[in-house]
Amino acid sequence: MDFQVVVLAGGASASLVPLVSKELPKPLLPVANRPVLSYVLDLLDSNNLKDLIVVVEGEEAALRVGSWISSAYVDRLRVEVAAVPEDIGTAGAIRAIAHYLTANDILIVSGDLVCDVPPGAVAAAHRRHDAVVTSLLCSVPVSGPLESGSSGGKDKAKKPRRYNIIGLDATSQFLLFVATGAEVEKDVRVQKSLLHAVGKMEIRSDLMDAHLYAFKRSVLIEVLDQMDTFQSIKLDVLPYLVRTQLRSQILLNGSPPAEENGHEKVILPNNHLPCPSTKALSFHDQNASWPSGFAAPKTHKCCVYIAEKSKYCARLNNIQAFSDINRDVIGEASHLSGYSFSTHNNVIHPSAELGSKTTIGPQCMLGEGSQLGDKCSIKRSVIGRHCRIGSNVKIVNSVVMNHATIGDGCSIQGSVICNNVQLQERVVLKDCEVGAGYVVTAGSEYKGESLARR
């Protein structure tokens, strides 16, 4: 479809410490024993999008990611890996590689996205509406395990999160209003002029911006050039384009649009927006000529593609999401894992060794060359490659990465154990993260702790 594809893969994300490290940058974090970046690359490959620019923060991380891509996708994809400075944001990353962008339309995808929504559907909607931007919206994921095994009742329920307040037209195809991040915690203000123009707007708080966007290249580059303080596509570029779409000039001579006086706004109090929810705002002017009036010259269109509720869509952008996505990809979203599950609904590598009376439950994964002692119990967990696990070990709702050593009698619940960690005998962990190479001494008990080498 003549789209250039940019994958923003990130690097040493602060929200994922201590899971990430110099040796394991964010794009290579394992989801069901595969790098998270592989899910986006496979999705693009399956949609015949094979020419990609993968943007990685930091030279060292880019080298590691590039090396992995060249070995894993050598005959499947044509990938240019571009290193950009750390902490310049998604908008800064696009600025840094702007000289690579030559196509009329650009597809920008977050490298931490795990989903089964075809990018081609977003691209087609973008072309159909001749939009300047089309954003993929998905149902808000729920957070936390269905069964945690803990005594607290709260831990047993998945919790919906609120991500954005989004205003849509009556056809749910055009994006009229967006409030994100800290804005969502305050009263939401909607321009009356916007409501006059569109007649009616539906406010939604049950949708997630999946960080998959189709952009008209010329508009995106012009915004980034003129708005040099913009750092984020989601928080800066997208809201700017949405705010200015009914104005006479896209860029308003490089100046942000002037805010209207407070009395010219409709205030939607935050406490009137339970999550998830929808709410309609309307004026009595039902003769508004929008969205057909959107075709008039000197306006531009911001569109959305809303995925079906049956589709899986989540972003690995914090530690809770890391645990949730690992659980989902060996559970309800196992079709994304790329593995064939056994009749017991689990995946045990043929080279793995299990001791006497050891049980591996459904929705579990056991990696290559890992060894478990006698009388172990593994439930709803992912065990990586070449782990050494002693006898009488219980692991529930957890992720254990590669080359971990776990001593006899350990109990691990709701935790993440990184590469090369050593847990000595009888360690008890609940809701903890243990950073790479850390040693937990025998008999230790931790709850809700982050343990890592300084």
TrEMBL record:
Give start and end of each Nucleotidyl transferase domain. Answer: 5-145
Source domain of life: Eukaryota
Q: Which UniProt keywords apply?
A: Cytoplasm, Initiation factor, Protein biosynthesis
Kindly list the biological process annotations in GO that this record carries: cytoplasmic translational initiation
Q: Which residues form the EIF2B subunit epsilon/gamma LbH domain?
A: 349-441
Matching entries from InterPro entries are given as: eIF2B_gamma, LbH_EIF2B3/5, NTP_transferase_dom, Nucleotide-diphossugar_trans
Name the principal localization, coarsely classed.
Answer: cytoplasm
Q: List GO terms (cellular component aspect).
A: cytosol; eukaryotic translation initiation factor 2B complex
Its subcellular locations are: Cytoplasm, Cytosol
* Molecular function (Gene Ontology), one example: guanyl-nucleotide exchange factor activity
State if Ubl conjugation is listed as a keyword.
no
Q: Among its keywords, does the record have Cytoplasm?
A: yes
What's its job? Acts as a component of the translation initiation factor 2B (eIF2B) complex, which catalyzes the exchange of GDP for GTP on the eukaryotic initiation factor 2 (eIF2) complex gamma subunit. Its guanine nucleotide exchange factor activity is repressed when bound to eIF2 complex phosphorylated on the alpha subunit, thereby limiting the amount of methionyl-initiator methionine tRNA available to the ribosome and consequently global translation is repressed.
Q: Which PANTHER family match?
A: TRANSLATION INITIATION FACTOR EIF-2B SUBUNIT GAMMA (PTHR45989:SF1)
- Subunit structure as annotated in this protein's UniProt entry: Component of the translation initiation factor 2B (eIF2B) complex which is a heterodecamer of two sets of five different subunits: alpha, beta, gamma, delta and epsilon. Subunits alpha, beta and delta comprise a regulatory subcomplex and subunits epsilon and gamma comprise a catalytic subcomplex. Within the complex, the hexameric regulatory complex resides at the center, with the two heterodimeric catalytic subcomplexes bound on opposite sides.
- Name the protein family: Belongs to the eIF-2B gamma/epsilon subunits family.
Protein's name in the database: Translation initiation factor eIF2B subunit gamma
